Amino acid sequence: MAKPIIGIPAERRLVGDSYRHTVNQGEVAAIIKAGGIPVLIPTRELALASNYSRLIDGLLLPGGPDVAPRFFGEEPLPEMAEADDRLDATEIELIKLAVAAGKPMLGICRGAQVVNIALGGDIYQDIAKQIDHQTYQHHQKAPYNQGSHYVDIAEGSMLQTIFQGQQHVLVNSYHHQAVRKLAPQLKLTAKAGDGVAEAVESKDSRLILAVQWHPELMYKEQVDEFAIFENFIERVKEA
């Protein structure tokens, strides 16, 4: 297979006086280094999602703003941060189209949450508010290319293979929402010591891997974090 085309939905941001579609450089650079060709997908026109889906071989769901709770049947709590329902709707549609077409996916942070929502699960709008015990500092104050807390990886998972058998891994953390009820076709394959979900995978295939941390900010120093992107490109080539 030639270098696979990897679609990355771009969020809309106001820069100066103009709105721009943006994706962080980390995801773009990691995909290129792993052997893929990143293509940014504008997220203002839901009707075009199927057109974009046909162009790509795999889908990377990046970090970004909070997910609007109406997409999982709730009203917003006061702790909710900025959300963009056009971004949410476009990503959810792209995920459903990718599943239907058997196109592999990698989710990062928000990406893990929106994958779970698209497939029938839900999330905590704010883990500090909605989890009834003390949680870790999930929005770390350390530099984002450094690990902040450990996650425990499930035995026999794709993630354990990526991390060469390790089951206790130091990761960074930059979120206040997290997967709550799992979608039926996903399984939990990593969690923090406080119980917060840190990774999900497809139950019966290698179609989906999504992590709550940010490997795109760690891969230059951490070989195992780069292996997440290498695994993604391998899965795309195999599909």
For this entry, give a set of tags.
239 residues, alpha/beta, 28% helix, globular, gamma-glutamyl-gamma-aminobutyrate hydrolase activity, PuuD-like, transferase, Glutamine amidotransferase
Task: Please provide a written account of the structure.
One of its GO terms (cellular component) is cytosol. Pfam families: Peptidase_C26 (PF07722). This is Glutamine amidotransferase. Keywords: Glutamine amidotransferase, Transferase. InterPro entries: Class_I_gatase-like, Peptidase_C26, PuuD-like. This protein is an alpha/beta fold. It has a single domain, classed as Class I glutamine amidotransferase (GATase) domain (Rossmann fold, 3-Layer(aba) Sandwich). The protein has helices spanning 25-34, 49-55, 85-101, 110-118, 127-130, 158-162, 223-238; strands at residues 5-9, 11-15, 18-22, 37-41, 58-61, 105-108, 123-124, 149-153, 168-171, 178-179, 186-192, 197-202, 208-211. The strands form 3 sheets. A 9-stranded mixed beta sheet has the order 4-1-5-6-13-12-11-8-9, sandwiched between helices. Strands 2-3 form a two-stranded antiparallel ribbon. The chain has a two-stranded antiparallel ribbon with strand order 7-10. Helix 2 crosses helix 3. The longest helix is centred in the middle third of the chain and has 17 residues, at 85-101. It is globular and about 45 Å long. The N and C termini lie close together (10 Å).
